[in-house]
Write a structure and sequence with these properties.
26 strands, 13 helices, TIM Barrel, six-stranded antiparallel β-sheet, 544 residues, Immunoglobulin-like, five-stranded mixed β-sheet, alpha+beta
């Protein structure tokens, strides 16, 4: 089966904008807006004994300029099959259904036309389109070629545990903080008997292992809310689900169901959720990669060998890395954020590397030996400048890691009196520090950065203080980060000129400061960060 084919216009600049969230268009039959969800419906003319697992219907779309894509229809009770799409460009589109039950004219060889209008809003998802891998296979971009700056948040249990009202609040806050991705689990991270919608009480699957439409309808509504707020949703646990639904999610039927159900939304799909290599997750990735129009990755758990294997797999579009929290061992945390990211950057085949889970801020402050705001902030900068093309943040955790913690955002703690109540944890200072990181990167052509740790000439031995650096391939710009050092000595001979300019950036406050003084010898320059700063980023630019 074919993946969607989109035109690619490579842009030399990253477009950054703010926008007001607006509801998704509920397009009627034969009427749609580019990149917004559209739905069609087929009605079987006879009963089928196993419509979920036994009937397969593909809908083939063809549009302007010969553009084509295919989506699976999904069974939605009785004789109804639905099919969904997000059209990449405006114009007249045709569709035709192809069923494995050719004797049913209600499902096979049905045809239709959809007139798609252009999108005129400011939501970057609908303005620039779904995600693709760049031509140099180093970063993610929108379908129109606009580089996609990944600033993620782990809201693992919030999707199934929160109400729709909760989700509106969550997505609105994260959008204002300029996050761009929400990572969540399709069926939760707890025992299956606890996984249900808190309002309706619905479970993901029925006793006969068929998907429960009421549960999945709630999930897709919340994904739509996130999309309307400019947030992609990375949906994990679609294979060997950690909540105990592996049997129900095995095989081709569920892969087609979830792919068809989410075809019109902006999602990234991951069979694995914090798991080492599992045959079912690998099989699920292969199935999804064959039929989905969305990007496929794996959430590998804190395990480098698993990350290597998924990096090499043809079924993953990009390498999702979990450098991890290592149960609070900060030496391992900082080392992995730096070294694991850099290793995957250098591995072949070349793929975008995204550090999708590192350290968590589980306190909301720095009052403790670990799980602090400074750890999650510093790991973000370290990962970015070690080759990651994005970073995912996390707020909250539980004992024994953090005494008194109840899980914050990712566990969706609903105790309003707790220090890490989910609404409180949403606005911890570390979330604002992620906004500063995002804004800093958005001000650069970040997708052109190449890790360059060799340019640092005064690297210390303390893993928590080791500095990182990246540079442009043409040598005209260099970015360095000092987690806990007073000064950095850099080899600037590669700039190709003795004249350069630069400034400091404070990751804690988002403010910039000029370079006050420097000492240069034989191509090496030593620069001291501003007095009183905890950590610092440095930007050096060659003068023309």
């Amino acid at each position: 089966m074919l993946k969607v084919l989109h035109p690619v216009f490579i842009l030399s600049i990253c477009l950054v904008m703010t926008f007001e969230a607006s509801p998704s268009l509920a397009a009627g039959a034969g009427d749609a807006v580019a990149w917004q969800p559209w739905e069609g419906e087929l009605t079987a003319q006879r009963n089928h004994t196993r419509p979920y697992a036994g009937v397969e219907v593909d809908v083939h779309f063809s549009g302007p300029g010969g553009m084509q894509f295919v989506v699976p229809a999904f069974w939605d009770e009785g004789r109804i099959f639905r099919f969904r799409a997000a059209f990449p460009i405006a114009g007249a589109w045709q569709w035709r259904s192809v069923a494995n039950v050719e004797s049913d004219p209600g499902l096979h060889d049905q045809r239709g036309r959809v007139n798609v209008a252009p999108y005129h809003g400011e939501n970057p998802l609908y303005l620039h389109g779904d995600l693709r891998v760049s031509l140099d296979r180093r970063y993610l971009m929108h379908a129109d070629g606009t580089p996609f700056l990944w600033m993620g948040d782990t809201a693992w249990n919030a999707l199934w545990k929160g109400t729709l009202e909760d989700w509106h609040h969550y997505a609105g806050v994260r959008a204002r903080q300029k996050f761009s991705v929400v990572q969540t689990v399709a069926t939760g991270t707890v025992n299956r008997n606890s996984t249900h919608n808190p309002v309706s009480g619905q479970m993901p699957f029925r006793e006969n292992s068929e998907p429960n439409p009421a549960y999945w309808s709630d999930i897709e509504k919340k994904i739509g809310v996130a999309n309307d707020n400019g947030l992609f949703v990375m949906l994990t646990g679609l294979g060997a689900a950690p909540a105990g639904f592996a049997t129900q999610q095995a095989g081709q039927a569920f892969a087609r169901y979830i792919t068809g159900r989410l075809a019109g939304l902006m999602v990234i799909l991951s069979p694995s959720m914090d798991q080492r290599i599992d045959a079912q997750n690998e099989d699920a990735a292969r199935r999804l990669h064959e039929i989905a129009t969305h990007l496929i990755t794996q959430h590998p758990g804190t395990h480098l060998d698993t990350s290597r294997r998924y990096h090499a797999a043809t079924s993953t579009d990009f390498a999702g890395l979990q450098s991890g929290h290592h149960s609070g061992d900060l030496v391992r945390v900082y080392t992995a954020a730096r070294e694991w990211t850099l290793e995957l950057w250098h591995r072949t085949p070349t793929k975008p590397v995204i550090n999708i889970e590192a350290m968590y801020d589980a306190r909301g402050n720095n009052d403790g030996p670990n799980w602090r705001e400074q750890d999650v902030r510093r790991c973000g900068w370290i990962a970015w400048l070690s080759g990651s093309r994005g970073y995912t943040y996390g707020a909250g955790d539980v004992p024994p890691k953090v005494p008194g913690g109840q899980g914050g955002v990712w566990r969706f703690n609903t105790d309003a009196g707790a220090y890490d109540y989910w609404r409180t944890a949403l606005t911890w200072p570390s979330a604002t520090q992620m906004t500063h990181l995002r804004d800093f990167m958005a001000g650069l052509e970040w997708w052109k950065l190449v890790p360059a740790p060799e340019l640092i000439r005064n690297q210390g031995k303390d893993p928590l203080a080791q500095m990182v650096a990246s540079r442009m391939a043409d040598g005209k710009l260099l970015v360095a980060y000092l987690p806990d050092s007073a000064e950095i000595t850099l080899d600037l001979s590669g700039l190709g000129t003795a004249s350069w300019t630069g400034h400091w950036f404070d990751p804690l406050t988002g403010k910039s400061a000029p370079i006050a003084d420097s000492a240069a010898t034989a191509g090496e320059t030593t620069l001291r960060k501003p007095s009183g700063w905890q950590d610092a980023a440095l930007v050096i630019t060659a003068r023309e």
